[in-house]
């Protein structure tokens, strides 16, 4: 009786049906992941013009806190102004300017850390921090800032930010995404077979 030699080139049948054993290669890079978290946080902002999000991360790549720009807790989103008061107009009223009331994303993230030590952490923010937020960043011990946009770079308050950061050695750099687009599709996750990635779909139980 002859014994059929196994087909080593194509592998045996059990190997052919086995689930993939290697890791997925299109997973999110850490920096993209944390910046995406900041962008997602910005979606919570009710500011009709500028939505900003921030995320604070420790040395173990754990998210310590997140925040977005908005009014202080219990200050009604429907009673306080969402626009800037224009100087020079007859009805100019500085108390009707949103900048008098809005808490910036970076400040909110620091406050949302619930007193945890932020020494040596990294801050991811969708917009380079202003001078007031920079004071809080320095005082809290954050050691690095990664930002997505610096569109107000020439304004005095942002130039002051860089002056302070440079003076104390807090580093900052513009985030360069490795992945240009991240799509969150709730329906896709609801319809996806949770067993498909494990190769269990065809098992008869």
UniProtKB/TrEMBL annotation:
One GO MF term: dCMP deaminase activity
Which BP terms from GO are recorded? nucleotide biosynthetic process
Pfam families reported for this sequence: dCMP_cyt_deam_1
Quote the catalytic activity from the record.
dCMP + H2O + H(+) = dUMP + NH4(+)
Q: Where would I find the CMP/dCMP-type deaminase domain in this sequence?
A: 29-165
Q: What class of enzyme is it?
A: hydrolase
Q: Where is this region: Disordered?
A: 1-20
Chain coiled-coil ranges: none
Instruction: Report the EC code(s) recorded for this entry.
Output: 3.5.4.12
Q: What keywords appear on the UniProt entry? A: Hydrolase, Metal-binding, Nucleotide biosynthesis, Zinc
According to its UniProt entry, the function of this protein is described as: Supplies the nucleotide substrate for thymidylate synthetase.
Q: Which family does it belong to?
A: Belongs to the cytidine and deoxycytidylate deaminase family.
What name is this protein filed under?
A: Probable deoxycytidylate deaminase
Species: Drosophila kikkawai (Fruit fly)
- Gene (name only): LOC108075032
């Amino acid at each position: 009786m002859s014994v059929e030699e196994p087909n080593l080139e194509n592998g045996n049948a059990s190997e052919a049906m086995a689930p993939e054993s290697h890791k997925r290669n299109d997973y999110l890079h850490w920096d993209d992941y944390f910046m995406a978290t900041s962008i997602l946080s910005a979606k919570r902002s009710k500011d009709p013009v500028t939505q900003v999000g921030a995320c604070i991360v420790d040395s173990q790549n754990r998210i310590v806190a997140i925040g977005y720009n908005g009014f202080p807790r219990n200050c009604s989103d429907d009673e306080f102004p969402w626009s800037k008061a224009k100087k020079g107009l007859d009805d100019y009223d500085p108390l009707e300017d949103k900048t008098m009331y809005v808490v910036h994303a970076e400040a909110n993230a620091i406050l949302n850390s619930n007193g945890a030590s932020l020494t040596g952490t990294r801050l991811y923010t969708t917009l380079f921090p202003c001078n007031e937020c920079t004071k809080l960043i320095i005082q809290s011990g954050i050691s690095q800032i990664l930002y997505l946009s610096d569109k107000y770079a020439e304004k005095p308050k942002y130039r002051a930010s860089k002056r302070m950061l440079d003076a104390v050695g807090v580093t900052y750099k513009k985030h360069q995404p490795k992945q240009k687009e991240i799509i969150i599709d709730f329906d896709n996750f609801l319809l996806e077979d949770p067993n498909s990635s494990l190769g269990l779909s065809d098992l008869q139980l």
